[in-house]
Hints:
Chain B has helices at 4-13, 23-26, 50-63, 115-122, 141-147, 154-157, 193-197, 231-243, 256-266, 285-301, 313-324, 326-329, 349-363, 391-408, 427-430, 433-446, 473-476; strands at residues 19-20, 43-45, 67-70, 87-90, 97-101, 106-109, 127-128, 164-171, 176-180, 205-213, 215-216, 220-228, 250-255, 275-283, 306-309, 336-339, 342-343, 366-372, 377-384. By secondary structure, chain B is α+β, with helices and mostly antiparallel strands. In chain B, α1 runs antiparallel to α3 (50-63), α8 (231-243) runs antiparallel to α13 (349-363) and α9 (256-266) crosses α11 (313-324). In chain C, α9 (287-294) runs antiparallel to α10 (315-325). Chain C starts with a strand and ends in a 7-residue tail after the last helix.
Amino acid sequence: MATAIEKCVHCGFCLAACPTYNLLGEEMDSPRGRIYLMKNVLEERLSADDAQPYIDRCLGCMACVPACPSGVEYGDLLVSYRALQEDQRRRPPLDALARKLVIETLPYPRRFRLAAQTGKLSKALTAALPDAFAAMLNLLPAKLPPALPIPPVMPAKGARRGKVALLPGCVQQVLAPEINYAAAQLLAANGVEVHNPPGAGCCGSILLHIGAERQARDIARRNFTQFPADVDAIITTAAGCGSGINDYELLFKSQPDAERATEFSQKVMDFSAYLAELGLRQPAGFEEERRVVYQDACHLLHAQSQHAEPRALLNQIPNLRLLEIADAGMCCGSAGAYNIDQPAIAAQLGQRKIESILAVQPDVIVSANIGCITQLRQQLDRLGNPLPVLHIAEILHQACAD
Amino acid sequence: MMNRGILQALQKIYPADRLLTRDVELLPYESDALTAFNAKPGAVVLPVNEEEIIDTVRLCHQLALPFVARGSGTSLSGGSLPIPEGLTIGLNRLNRIKKIDPLQRIAVVEPGVINLHITEAAQPYGLYYAPDPSSQSICTIGGNIAFNSGGAHCLKYGMTSNHVLAMKVVLADGTVTRFGGESVDGVGIGPDLVGLFVGSEGLFGIALEITVRLMPQPELYQTVLAAYDDLGRAGDAVSMVVASGLLPGAMEIMDRLAIKAAEASVSAGYPDAEALLIVELEGEALQVEAEFEQLLGIIEKSSAIEVRVAQNEEERTRIWKGRKGAFSAVGRLSPDYIVQDGVVPRSRLGEALVEIGALKDKYQLDVANVFHAGDGNLHPLILYDGREAGALERAEALAGEILALCISLGGSITGEHGIGMEKRDYLPAMFSEEEIDIMEGLRRAIDPNEIANRGKMFPGGEAPALSQHGVHPLERAGLISRE
Amino acid sequence: MTMYAPRSVTELQALVLDSERIHVIGNGSKPALHCAVNGAAIVDLSGMSGIIEYQPAEYTATVRAGAPVRELSAALREKGQYLPFDPLLPEAATIGGTVASNLSGSRRFRYGGVRDFILGAQVVDGEGRAFGVGGKVVKNSAGFDLSKFLVGSMGKYAIMTELTFKVFPDVPRFRSLGFHYEELEEALSAIYFINQSAYELDALDLAPPSVHPINRGKKNGNWMLLARLAGFDDTLPRRVERFTAAMTRDTATIRVEELHDSAALWNPLADLTGEFLVKVVIPPKQLPAFDALIAHNRRRYSVGGNIAWAATDDIAQLDTALTSCGLTGLCLSGAVDSALIGVPIDNALAERVKQVLDPLGKLV
Lengths: 402, 483, 364
């Protein structure tokens, strides 16, 4: 942690990239300011409680990381700091209960599905979730979509060009099963053999985010043995999972299975990255021009440096016109606690984002993360705008359908 | 803690959420981009319109309360360092571009507008704002004005001062005055007050509204990257380009250490070499093409070991990204460093570099060199480790010797970062006692209480102590360690 | 009236200390600037002349203030360099006078004015103190930039004795074109088009119908936009072609003619005869309103329509026109009480400088 803090030379280059600084215009709400606050807390010049509101206001969007010339690992710093503070934080009993519920429910799709269907769980859970999932739960549909089972092995269509396994994830597969379904179909249609190990599941990122490191490791470990060794990649369709798995090295530092964790994380690839490298097989495209805005998910753009890949895929589709928006790298505000903890800031970010999107008059909005999709949907609903918001796998699947 | 009466007076101007007084709100304002100094302000106010600024300055004048205006806090000379227990006026919320007039090629902006945002707003009209400090993505025009900021592309079209046509300012005693106009001739008749105000380091007052000129985007850039196995040869190449009569938009040199830092930061794909020269031609396509041929001929003769030409905008951006992030990237190589900013006559660059090499050996410190070679503006980055006893003092001493060197070669102690906090003590090396007296007299004629950015530019006076980085408290406790 | 001609800074200092009021003159090329100095000792600086240091490789030159512009220009020309701010009176004026009155010719259009090329100066102030301002290198931001303040200061704050400039390499070839427009607004639109284009002109002036010799005797009533391109032999013809094509893109009917490129063509004052000659700093957008008021005067709109030069025999009428447009003028010739006409300048900041450099008000 100290390394990261000392690496910061206070140059201020991060300020321009930071959504909260842009919105609030205060040094404490900038990455540089937060690092300085963390430093002062660690040096005991400042109480952790005083600093907490400003640390909590951080979206964790990681836009500051690529903006930093000094290479401050802000993400690691934030996770470590939050974990350190979590240990010392005493929570009211209700919060503690909700937290337990999250840990026991969210990572398990079947439990989650059951709980969600009873409809009583969501409120209790949201109170405990300082991350992207909370907003999603808050918006739990009255009725969950039916599960879309994917066979354990989907053979490649035509000549086989690759072999992958799909990381099913947790919440997304319950709330939006069509995403993984479309991804699997699309991969198979493009000559990729897709494995869907029944025992695989949550990557643990969600638990890491709420500072439950031990439980996060336990959940993550369950995946290490589930996947065939000979796949080219383990594919994730959620930007948050991909970036969380990138943090395994930190999570498993000096822990049992560290090597396996690293091995596993090196295999994991975002859906767009894999498919862009492979290239689509003669997509049919759309009959009429479709104007598409691709909304960058922070955890894909900033945390995994995926800018060109999803765009390259979309650009392969005949009659799909890809539009660029102003401030494309700025978080849409979905980053979670936001809709609950910081409703005003989240709403402003969402509003700015949807304004920049609507300014270019798209027919469809596409993203690679269910958090963003939910946030944008909410903004559109507020405006009474029926514009569709799709996962990139879905639009590609549509465009590749015969 | 600020005196109660003062706070009450400020509360009359600012709502609670724009008057920051708690420690947690003040600490992040303790330093700008020169972290060698820090000082906690008594309060930070965040005005949202010029009336609030004027009221604040008048109040400060009345109460003799020292203040410093702050944009994004990116000064490398400590220019926006708070005055201990004084008022910091954060101007970053005055960030409206009031007007873009593409026909007359001007923009009217508030002081908190970010430099690059002007270019972005002018882009649809084929125009841009020329001064490009490396921090252009975040530094504000108000700060650029205070320090007459430069950038890599100053060779042809000058620094901030050359691009400001008119201003409305509030002087430190509360007087509001305007000068200049929308004609490209600026002030045009009568003494050039814009020229006097720009670069006054916040000692005269605060700019409230600024009219800048915009330039047409060059039709073509040709960016050449040449690698040398010797720093001196890169310097010679610059002299050859100058002698040829070419007028490039930018000429930059980086040495091995700076290349390494930039490479680690943005993977610019720089060649492995002792020195890199970046020369950029810009302008009308046909003209640039002709100049480009001439330039390549010169570079070929300059014993470059490798020459690359940016083939597209992406490659050009990558070359510049490495250069522009080079300062901060040095943070990857060393726990602490000092950025210097001296100027030598262009023809004595080689001499200066040899001398800096010798000084570096004398003080046993590493120095990375990044500089605007076209105008002889050196930026040696002195690397040191604050944990090592006496390292900071040695670095400071080395920095001082470099400045003395610049003056002895007939140059200046600052090209574009300003005197600020950092170079106050070197001002007498460049100006006589009488000249400093006259400047101080001028300052007092505008600001009798010496409240505006007190403690900057002039030697002596009250100043926050140099902060000792030293050993981290957690390190001392054995809880953490640095690699 | 007493005339003095100091030969050195020390002599000048002594003069300042011994005099109650002092007025500086170079070559006297702008007589209106020397009206209304009754009783002041006149200090003729033309004796403090000569180039002190010229370093072509540095793009810098230092000269004494009394040096004729033509002397410096000739030295620069020999090395293929020039003063990009284009002194307005290249034959008659001194360098000091050019800086003090801030007068640039048409080539100011390309790179900027006096303020953009002054690097430093040595001065003697109203207290008789001799000191330096600015520096001698092309980039410098140490201390307050009083060297820029001297530009346009009319010798009222300090007397310049030495000046250092940034200079640029010049180009070998020029081509001049004239574009005819029936209305001022059309010509102005053409200027706006150029302003947003990437064509790099060396100069751009606008000559009103019938007034300028270039226009006289030609199709009656045309505004002529004068454009000058500068460059190399091998590219200039193609650049001229491209530029002409772009300028006539909408209406092939626009008459274009190649003009003989000469110093006379690019002297904005050529043929501006009248008792009073006035410089007006004007935003191009104000040209139509201003021109309507002074249409009977000889005039030329220089530097892309940003500086107006007007000649008149009726200074009161011009003063009224300027005032009604909110503009300020500087009178260069003719007997006037004050060289400044039109709207007065907000001098709050300049007055502070006066308090420090010349508290007794000696310099007039």
